Amino acid sequence: MKPFTIILIAGVTFLLSCNHNTYPLLPPQDVESMTGDNEVILLWSKVSNPHVVSYRIYKSDKPYGYFELIDEVSSTSYVDHDVANGNTYYYALSSVDEFGNESDLTSYPIFDTPRPERYNQRIFAYSYSGDTLGLSGYSLSDFSPVHRDEGDFYFTYDNGVPRIICSPSTYIQDMGETQDLSDINWAPDEGWTQESVNAYANHSYVIWTRDNHFAHIRILSVTDNYLLFDVAYQTDPGNHELSIGESSNVIYLKTGR
Length: 257
Fold this sequence. Notes:
elongated; disordered N terminus; single chain
């Protein structure tokens, strides 16, 4: 029920509906973005105000200035399909109550850069295929098996231990066990010292290529003959989704559709 005010004038009682919200109207909190293939997924926590009925999503191609209203939803998630791999998009969210009041926008930068991904990629161990099949290496930019010396990395066995060997000036980090390709959403700033690592099933690895691109491979299985993995590759050079500057410098100006 909407709140109301009772006014008594000259013995006549008037009931006036009041379109106001006695609870503080705050923007959504804990907003996260997940990088997808030609999509960006936004997730946030439900606002505790019982009068909040929907959330508005604003978008821009810059971290400041005018943000355009692109949608209004009642759920706590949103998938933006109107994006292209390799481009960075910036978002801001607000809460709307049942009286039509709208909160301020989120005050911190929410951004993401979609990237292509592929599943069930297979390359053969160099000791097994040699150069005859040309399937021991992998080109991240082409999502394709290649000869050992033509890819960003290749798969081999070293004294019986399965290894991923990167090309010169390409680095790799073992990020440990993961459940899904989406579990690693950015590349780290530090720790880039290794050009080869042991290959473990269900482990994720982040790669920094010699031409300044970042990628994520998640190994599905390791056999005597081949390596099976999923891969995501950031087509925007140098973009590893960590920071764009201090949030205090971000200024949002809303605009309608």
